[in-house]
Every structure is written in structure tokens, then in C-alpha cells.
Amino acid sequence: MSSILRIALQKSGRLSEDSYQLFKECGIRFDYGTGKLKSVSSNFPAEFLFLRDDDIPGYVEDGVADLGIVGENVAVESTHQIETVHRLGFSKCRLSLAIPRGTDWNGIQDLNGKSIATSYPRILGNYLSEQQVSAEIHEISGSVEIAPGIGLAEAICDIVSSGSTLLSNGLKEVETIFRSEAILIARPTLEDEKQSLLNKLLFRIKAVQAAKN
Ligand code: PRT
Ligand code: ZN
Known about the structure:
The protein contains six helices and eleven strands. By secondary structure, the protein is of the alpha/beta class. Helices cover 28% and strands 29% of the residues. It is elongated, with a radius of gyration of 20 Å. It binds phosphoribosyl ATP and zinc ion. Keywords: Amino-acid biosynthesis, ATP-binding, Cytoplasm, Glycosyltransferase, Histidine biosynthesis, Magnesium, Metal-binding, Nucleotide-binding, Transferase. It catalyses: 1-(5-phospho-beta-D-ribosyl)-ATP + diphosphate = 5-phospho-alpha-D-ribose 1-diphosphate + ATP.
């Protein structure tokens, strides 16, 4: 049986449109947005799976999918064995520390002994230990920006794009700890046939990117 690449994409969210657009520009056709969980391409040996972004690294590690597109923030935070194959340049954002607007800021050492709410405990933990700051990390899964207002934490570490969410919650960005964009991830060892399909796909992706620069 000839091989087919299984590619996991975010079903609906900030990565979805640009992910679908990328394959379209590569000349790879498939149906999406029909509510189906998967779709086989009509002109490239690929099957697309539509999932929540957080589940993609695990599915790629388990071999349910061969490739996936996720934010680098999600890939780096996850503990799954996956490899970054290529940087895609869209869904750019940053992971930043923020504190209530009225609070003084003299540098990262100000966070010593403080509590910080985040959905990114690993990235934040590594950053704090590099900076030799000892703070308590409160892991929460959503609406991190409300944590200081309800007395849960003195600072937050969250994804920022335009900055308007911080602004409307009375917070100010004080330090960027990680810069992210969408990346193509893969299982560390793909079978030969799948690897050669991946090489074909990468060739097209690079041509699309080169035409834009
Ligand atoms: O449903 P599913 O689990 O698949 O999606 P999700 O809600 O977990 O993720 P989604 O679609 O919000 O984001 C997917 C990826 O897009 C993230 O992992 C990032 O890599 C990237 N990305 C780019 C962002 C943003 N920009 C962004 N602004 N992810 C989240 N945000 C959120 C942020 O958490 C904060 O609440 O938007 C708010 C800040 O935005 P600004 O513009 O007000 O600063
Ligand atoms: Zn998610």
C-alpha cells in the first residue's frame, strides 16, 4: 500500500485560516469547515485531521498524525517527543509577564516571592530559574488576565498579540519571555516513504514562502 501523510491542523482558532491557506497555496486541495473530523486531499497523498491545537503534539508523538501545525508556545510547553520541521511565519505572538498598571517595575527581580498565574508553567519556570528568580507559579488554563484582579496572583504570564487584552484588564506588559509563530512539527523518525512525501511538501512550502519575500 502506498503511503499517505496524516497532517493535524487546528479545527477552528487562530491557526486555522492561515494553515488552510498555506496548503491551498501549495496546490494541495482538501475540504474543511464541513464539521468533519478528517478529509483526504484530492490531489496529494495526504489526509488532514481537524483537532484542538493542544491535542496535536500528543497525536503526533503517538503516530495518530505524522505532522501537525501548532504555535511554538504549545510545542515548547508540551512534554511530547516531537520535532520542529519548519517555521511558518504566521500566528505570531509573544509570551509576556504583566503586572497591574499602577505597580512599580524595576526589573525581573521584583517578582521574587510573588505569585504568577499562567497557562505556561514550564516555559515560565525555565525562564525564572535562568533569571534566578524564585516565585510561585499558579497554573490556570484560561482567562489568566483576570487573576490579579481577583487576588489569585500578583502577576501573569500570558500570550500577547495586540496588547488590548492586557490594557482592558488594567495590566502592563513588563517583560517578553518567549516569541512564537506557527511551526510544522513531526514525529522524530518518519518512515522513508512518509519522509519523502514530507520533503515534497517542504519544497512547496518553501517556494510559497520565497514568493512572498
Ligand atoms: O480551541 P483550541 O484549543 O484549538 O484553540 P485555543 O483557544 O487554545 O487557541 P487559539 O486559537 O486562541 O490560539 C492558537 C495559537 O495562536 C496560540 O497557541 C498562539 O500560538 C497563537 N496566537 C497568536 C495567540 C494569539 N495570537 C493571541 N492573541 N493565542 C492566543 N491569543 C490570546 C491570548 O491568550 C490572550 O487572551 O489572545 C489574547 C491576547 O490578545 P491581544 O491581541 O489582546 O494581545
Ligand atoms: Zn487550545
